[in-house]
Task: structure prediction
Amino acid sequence: MSAGALLLGFLNVCLYCAIIILVAFVIVWVLSTVFGITLDANVMKWGKIVVALLCIIAIAAWLLSLLGGGVSVAPHFLSGR
Result:
């Protein structure tokens, strides 16, 4: 496997994690700014845990695809479709 493919795969995983974090941030921002709803501390804690787990799953899937153990489950943003 070439270094370019490794770098592109790593950047794809970084982009996927950034999109997950951005969507979570926008949801919290819209709820607090537009609707005036403040989230409970427990809801915020569990939301952070879910976002972290999604990022860990994306990283683990990328690492497994490097080892040939499976296909990446992350969406392919850079595919030519």
